[in-house]
């Protein structure tokens, strides 16, 4: 089974068990960076299960943003 098909299967199973609204809620909580413990408590599952969902349903993206005051110093030096 391809990774895409596996994700779809797991998403459909989640919706069957918890419903589409709860799936939206899970995705929102994951997107907001809520802790696995908090999400697990809400869905009555382990933090490990939350970690598995997190890895299955999306990707964590880290962004480094330079502070504007640092950019200003750089502009002044140019």
What would a concise description of this structure say?
The protein has 78 residues and is mainly α. The chain has five helices and no strands.
Describe the structure in your own words.
- The chain is elongated.
- 74% of the residues lie in helices and 0% in strands.
- It has five helices and no strands.
- The protein starts with a helix and ends with a helix.
- The mean pLDDT is 94.
- The chain has one domain (3-57).
- It is mainly α.
- The chain has helices spanning 3-18, 20-32, 36-43, 47-57, 68-77.
The average pLDDT score comes to 94
How far is it from the N-terminal to the C-terminal residue, by CA? 54 Å
How many helical elements? 5
Q: How much of the residues is beta strand, in percent?
A: under 5%
- Rg over CA atoms, rounded to whole Å, is 18 Å
Secondary structure: elements and pairs:
Blueprint lengths: L2 H16 L1 H13 L3 H8 L3 H11 L10 H10 L1
Helix pairs in contact: 1-2, 3-4
List descriptors.
78 residues, mainly alpha, 5 helices
């Amino acid at each position: 089974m391809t990774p895409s098909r596996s994700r779809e299967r797991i998403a459909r199973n989640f919706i069957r068990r918890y419903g589409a609204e709860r799936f939206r809620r899970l995705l929102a909580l994951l997107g907001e960076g809520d802790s696995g413990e908090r999400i697990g408590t809400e869905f009555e599952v382990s933090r490990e299960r939350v970690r598995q969902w997190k890895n299955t349903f999306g990707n964590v993206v880290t962004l480094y943003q330079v502070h504007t005051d640092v950019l200003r110093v750089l502009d002044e030096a140019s």
